[in-house]
From TrEMBL, chains A, B:
<dbReference type="InterPro" id="IPR027417">
    <property type="entry name" value="P-loop_NTPase"/>
</dbReference>
<keyword id="KW-0554">One-carbon metabolism</keyword>
<comment type="pathway">
    <text>One-carbon metabolism; tetrahydrofolate interconversion.</text>
</comment>
<dbReference type="InterPro" id="IPR020628">
    <property type="entry name" value="Formate_THF_ligase_CS"/>
</dbReference>
<dbReference type="InterPro" id="IPR000559">
    <property type="entry name" value="Formate_THF_ligase"/>
</dbReference>
<comment type="subunit">
    <text>Homodimer.</text>
</comment>
<keyword id="KW-0547">Nucleotide-binding</keyword>
<dbReference type="GO" id="GO:0006164">
    <property type="term" value="P:purine nucleotide biosynthetic process"/>
</dbReference>
<dbReference type="GO" id="GO:0005524">
    <property type="term" value="F:ATP binding"/>
</dbReference>
<protein>
    <recommendedName>
        <fullName>formate--tetrahydrofolate ligase</fullName>
        <ecNumber>6.3.4.3</ecNumber>
    </recommendedName>
</protein>
<keyword id="KW-0436">Ligase</keyword>
<dbReference type="GO" id="GO:0004329">
    <property type="term" value="F:formate-tetrahydrofolate ligase activity"/>
</dbReference>
<dbReference type="Pfam" id="PF01268">
    <property type="entry name" value="FTHFS"/>
</dbReference>
<keyword id="KW-0658">Purine biosynthesis</keyword>
<dbReference type="GO" id="GO:0006730">
    <property type="term" value="P:one-carbon metabolic process"/>
</dbReference>
<keyword id="KW-0067">ATP-binding</keyword>
């Protein structure tokens, strides 16, 4: 970036709190960040001084460009403390962008406000590798999560209201109300219902000619209440709403039903925001969302309820990626944040596409010119490689048509020691001795976990760099052990990074390695014949087969057991024609297996699938290998209790 | 406004749809509107191209200025079709600002998205008197309603979670978790709980010295679940959530309880947004919100739950007024939208204060100079004068310290005929003949309703202008009847306005009259000794007395009956020290009385108070004279069914 203005770091030791660091840095105005990033003045829509939405026009304007390099950041099987994927993503962008002076975008997820006010705190990276201002990053941003919630809940209200009206009205009354007769005898059909008319094959016929049976089919969705999968959402940790009964007011005539709320980021609408490739694509995906089945077993969609246009209108601005900046002033796209527990846990395809074009090069350059000019897009996938990376590749890349040039696997000495037999690590509790002193043997044993993730990643034909996220108690010898194990497992390199303590400068070595790898300059890459491929084909394989491939090839399972509920769903979805979708498996992130207690590299276990659910609009089935809580709770002492707004209007104590 | 750029109207006949008119006008960039309005470059935070937040710094910067003229727009007892208050507010601002070239701000409420996607449609004015872009006006704007919902619901989650944790933990365990012991034996007390410590008088004592009883008092709120008044909210018409049972998930250990959702604009947090006079004031009001009583009858507040700082953080940006523009490019503040059914139904004090400063004049001018330079702030109150105006004056003006210079009462021939005995007017049904042809007798009889509103308004010592909102079937003779009746009842003038069809030009006469009146230039104003006063004092009068004054002096009641539930609440609130607050009465807007069927000027009726509730943070009690639905439902055919996003990304069919 030619006229890039770096924000200087004033490194202190010990490293102050994330919040202090963020507040002590004065960000550039977002229009400046946009300009430096190659976004034109009329393509950026500022939301306050430090956030902005970028119009999708950018992608069209630059469609001739060859994409920049696409770097995926994933990790090993983590501890509950987290091993620093977000921090590495941001630190690496600072290193490439601010330290090395090349174009670099960090693409991250928008955090939910539930955890922000719960125990966890923010998700803007940490130390000297952060997205700023961190308080704005952790609240509202430009309102996308709110839009997702509105869209999700309008659909829920539309569904329940329709059931209510169908229960109290004849076909004739429904017909009269939904499509009132005009003076000339024609019918005023709302545009939202035209898709249903087409689906029923009635679009070729004048509504005046419809038979009573056809009218009935059109006006009566005949929802089987037992099959409703659509839940309402709130962007909060509200455990009281996990299980509720609705329709208890006297006005609702006794049509009570049991349901619950999810956290907003668990909504299928959020997954669609992440996976859409255009406004039109989002419109179609929203229409395809299935909310229930009819009494005759047919899927009822958002389109059937006449809601898809309105949901698209609600999401019209949310689809534009949000631009922010790192602590060193390099650009960051913050866009979409689907819940990693049941969804892909990655940021949006559109943000990636946009960043890749902005980091891209004009066609016709020589290889050397291209290497000189090309930029880097560093995008993160939630959880470890084997969950987040697998979903990123098989679901997100399948939808986007993109493929990463490098996969980074973030590892820490601490987490690898857990896999080598170390004592349990708990958030809030002091670390056992083995984690704060050198223990080469334990570490060496634990490296098997890292090696399994490397081998898994290599199955996709992508080069792997291991980023060793340095902590102060690590020894050089320990770092050497990790490097050795990484190379043995097929990683192109393994590099220590100290971005938390030093910002971009601390990740300079890692950045140089990543650039080298992304441009195929490691000797080991020269004669490689590796080619990117998905783990499984979506067509021509049964749901069971696809799940088995993931469980065996990625997790190390010996066998997969489909429990009765899952078997039933497989039958149902296959009958409904939804068996040709990729699969998102929901399981613990704390083990390669389904059992959080199994550290290291468990093998031969029987992997249980309890249930299968569908996100038809987002475009995948999700298989549950565990009971997944889709709305967290608050603790006795909560994050919110520390928050205050001071007399200058600044937020204190968010972290 | 010296360098004001007027957006020209291209008047068509018949008047196209609101949406067509809005789309055909290209708005100015919001930074241009801000600049023309006297907002400095670093005081405006654009949210996209056509909306922006204005920092509260403006009010401080201009604190030396004398306020502009303050014009309140209210109406007569309306029909369900609405009599055009919003349209008059916007049209008058266009007339003063664009036609007459003076400074003029329209201050309006942010509409809820519930009705937007329900039957009602938008609320941006109409015809050639609109806020634009109307689709942005009717959705999200800058996210304030979403912030209100988040703040409201975080408090709800905090309350229910606290009850859960208190039910499962001993005092000692709660103490240990809420305020963990540090290594040195001191306690880490979250900042959010310090207010409770002070309230209990424990702040003078080292926590180490607290007795078991004191610890118990501090950690155990001991909420009486039967007394919980705090509900969750959604900005949607979702009737299924009116009555629900929560805590039914197995994790919640059987602590089920009945509750319900309100529409977000009915939240007390929204009323606080409207009534706060600064960030600090908002912080204090949020803390004072009462959510329940303890088992010993003491009010439990947001502050007791340690939530008030976090709620303020969530609302930190929402408190800044939003700037938009009219169809003719004059500035509009859109800020807060408390539900008129149970709250004040007026936009925010801060938006009014800010506009009054921006429309104000430097001190030391001669009377003539001041008249020449001063600007006008036109603000609207929901419902008719006798409800919305009364609340505006007795609640909003009491909190703000402001008083209006002119009260406008909007009247239509149509609505006055209803009060003169005309047949019922229903939305969607054709108008009976008396409304589309001249009927002077019926109209003359109906003018009594207008006269009662005028007389009511005059009780506050403010001059009244009647705005006759012209419709095409009106006759000149009918307009003369209204004028005559208005003057007879004490109005300073009554002026026909045709802004819907002609924009600002159509409201030119009205604008001239309002300016003349606001500057005291009508002959009738010359020797006036009228002085602004509230209808009642809040201190030194019982709750019953205050309600009786409103019911008798404003509504025309002969007597007030307090039903048992209301009597009990009066006792409770009086005991809790909440009897010195003003009162917001919730009743039908379709009659001066509590009975929608009583048109004209009913007198001598007994006015029933069924129940009384409290919005302690907002600063009023509200007395229910009717069953008020606090979350609407959706119809069989809904607004959302007409909405689509076209290939250019534009929203179609919102209206």
């Amino acid at each position: 970036m030619s006229d890039f203005k770096r924000l200087k770091l004033n490194l202190e030791k010990p490293v102050p709190s994330d919040f202090q660091i963020s507040r002590n840095q004065k960000p550039k105005h977002i229009t400046e960040v946009a300009k430096e990033s190659g976004v034109l003045e009329d393509e950026i829509e500022p939301y306050g001084a430090y956030k902005g939405k970028v119009k999708l026009d950018v992608i069209d304007r630059l469609h001739n460009r060859k994409d920049g390099r696409y770097i995926l950041v994933t990790g090993i099987t983590p501890t509950p403390l987290g091993e620093g994927k977000s921090t590495t993503t941001v630190g690496l962008a600072q290193a490439i962008g601010a330290t090395l002076g090349k174009t670099a975008f960090a693409n991250v997820r928008q955090p939910s406000m539930g955890p922000t006010f719960g125990v966890k705190g923010g998700a803007a990276g940490g130390g000297y590798s952060q997205v700023i201002p961190m308080d704005e990053f952790n609240m509202h941003i430009t309102g996308d999560i709110h839009a997702v919630g509105m869209a999700n809940n309008l659909l829920a209200a539309a569904l329940d209201t329709r059931i209510f009206h169908e229960s109290t009205q004849t076909d004739k009354a429904l017909w009269k109300r939904l499509c009132p007769e005009r003076k000339d005898g024609s019918r005023d059909i709302p545009i939202g219902l035209t898709a249903r008319i087409k689906k029923l094959g009635l679009d070729t016929k004048d509504p005046k000619e419809w038979t009573e049976e056809e009218i009935s089919k059109f006006v009566r969705l005949d929802v089987d209440q037992e099959t409703i999968t659509w839940k309402r959402v709130l962007d909060l940790n509200d455990r009281s709403l996990r299980g509720i009964t609705i329709n208890e007011a006297p006005t609702e005539k006794g049509l009570t039903r049991k349901t619950g709320f999810d956290i907003t980021v668990a909504s299928e609408v959020m997954a669609i925001l992440a996976l859409s490739t255009s406004l039109k694509d989002m419109r179609e995906r929203l229409g395809k969302m299935v909310v229930a089945s009819s009494k005759s077993g047919e899927p009822i969609t958002c389109e059937d309820l006449g809601c898809a246009g309105a949901l698209t209108a609600i999401m019209k601005d949310a689809i534009k990626p949000n631009l922010m900046q790192t602590l060193e002033g390099t650009p960051v796209f913050v866009h979409a944040g689907p819940f990693a527990n049941i969804s892909i846990g990655a940021s949006s395809i559109l943000a990636d596409k946009m960043a890749l074009k902005l980091a891209g090069v004009e066609p016709g350059l020589t290889e050397e010119e291209e290497k000189e000019q090309v930029g880097y897009v560093i995008t993160e996938a939630g959880f470890d490689f084997t969950m987040g990376g697998e979903r990123f590749l098989n679901i997100k890349c399948r939808a986007s048509g993109l493929k990463p040039d490098v996969i980074i696997i973030v590892a820490t000495v601490r987490a690898l020691k857990v896999h080598g037999g170390g004592a349990e690590v708990k958030a809030g509790a002091p670390l056992p001795l083995e984690y704060t002193t050198e223990n080469v043997e334990m570490l060496r044993k634990g490296c098997a976990n890292l090696q399994k993730h490397i081998e898994n990643a290599k199955q996709y034909g992508v080069d792997v760099i291991v980023a060793i996220n340095r902590m102060s108690s690590d020894s050089d010898k320990e770092h050497d052990v990790i490097k050795e194990a990484s190379l043995a497992a097929g990683a192109t390199d393994a590099i220590v990074s100290n971005h938390w303590e030093q910002g971009g400068q601390g990740a300079k070595d890692l950045a140089e390695g990543v650039i080298k790898c992304a441009n195929g300059e490691y000797p080991s890459q020269k004669d490689s014949t590796e080619k990117f491929d998905f783990l499984y084909a979506t067509e021509g394989k049964t749901i069971e087969e696809k799940i088995s491939i993931i469980a065996k090839k990625m997790y190390g399972a010996g066998d997969v057991e489909f429990l009765p509920a899952a078997q039933e769903k497989i039958k149902e979805y296959t009958a409904q024609g939804f068996d040709n979708l990729p699969i998102c498996i929901a399981k613990t992130q704390y083990s390669l297996s389904h059992d959080a207690k199994l550290k290291g590299v468990p093998t031969g276990f029987t992997f249980p699938i309890r249930d299968i659910k569908a996100s038809i609009g987002a475009g995948y089935l999700y298989a549950l290998a565990a009971e997944i809580q889709t709305i967290p709770g608050l603790a006795t002492k909560c994050g919110f209790m520390n928050v205050e707004v001071n007399n200058d209007g600044e937020i204190e104590g968010l972290f």
